[in-house]
Amino acid sequence: MAITRKGPAAQEFSRLVISEGGEVISLPTIEIVPKGLEVIPEFISIVKEKKYDYCMFMSSQAVDVLFDLALKVNKVEEIILALNSTIIVAVGPKTKSSLISHGMEVKMMPEEYSSQGLVCLFSKMDNGIVKGKKIIIPRSEKAKEFIRKTLSCLGMTVDEFFLYDVKTSCTDTIWDDFVALLKQKKVDAIIFTSASTVQSFFEIMGKLSYNTYSLLSNVKAIIAIGPATSEELRKRNIKAFESKEHTIRGTFELAKSILNER
Q1: Hey, which of 8, 14, 191, 224 would disulfide with 230, CB 3.0 to 4.6 Å?
Q2: pLDDT tens column, 16-75
Q3: CB of 224 closer than 8 Å to CB of 233
Q4: Which is nearest to 159 in space by CA: 15, 50, 82?
């Protein structure tokens, strides 16, 4: 199986696959590029000044980047105080776990771990409670506008704070190995972990001048971690399975189920 993550980000999936006797290839598709250290005092100042009701984290990467930068400027305690003055919302269990590990108290998390799940979470709240409330979302500069637009339609004041950017990784020998396995029809499943990794995957394959669509036709299960990832694959006419639980474990269980049937 292949996953569009590398290093520590792919460890959970690797453990699950190896525990079932499988092999994993971790594809370096994207790189997280944090903003400068000046964003930390800026973020603290904005949170204090605007007195947000909510602070929403859409990924564990956003949490890690925020605290890594805060540590470098010795402002971790100030970040904790600023964030704990708000109601902290996490998109899913991994993000929640990362926040808790940094001393945050997570008070809200949707049943469906996705942007749609977050919107549903706030939509179910009484309109009088949500309307006029202020929320800040620390996130990637390439983030889609869906969450901002839909929460704004609920009457909330939504501010996005860009902590990092995402760029396509440089190619290396892992990609050559991956393509060789595709040609040999030895890649049973590919797990796409975000819309950004879909974009970068096709960008990299295009640079390598491979017939991507022909190669992917040999893969038994192409799996998207959630709705945004599925949509990005659909734009490229790739039919993907989508796990009901939008987590790495969810994608693994779905892959295992599909492969066991074939």
Answers
A1: 224
A2: 899 988 899 999 999 999 999 999 999 999 999 999 999 999 999 999 999 999 999 999
A3: yes
A4: 50
For the segment 110-135, the average pLDDT, to the nearest whole number, is: 87
DSSP code per residue over 176-216: HHHHHHHHTT---EEEE-SHHHHHHHHHHHHHTT--HHHHH
**How many angstroms separate the CA atoms of 47 and 86, rounded?**
9
**21 and 118 in a common domain:** no
pTM for the model stands at 0.86
Three-class SS state of 184:
coil
- Structural domain count of the chain: 2
- Compute the half-sphere exposure of residue 147: CA atoms within 13 Å on the CB side of its CA: 25
Co-location of 85 and 208 in the same domain? no
Same domain for 37 and 24, yes or no, is no
Does pLDDT of 127 surpass 90?
A: no
233/10: higher pLDDT: 233
Backbone angles phi, psi at 67, to 5 degrees: -75, -30
The domain that holds 117 is classified in CATH as 3.40.50.10090
Say whether both 204 and 235 belong to one domain.
yes
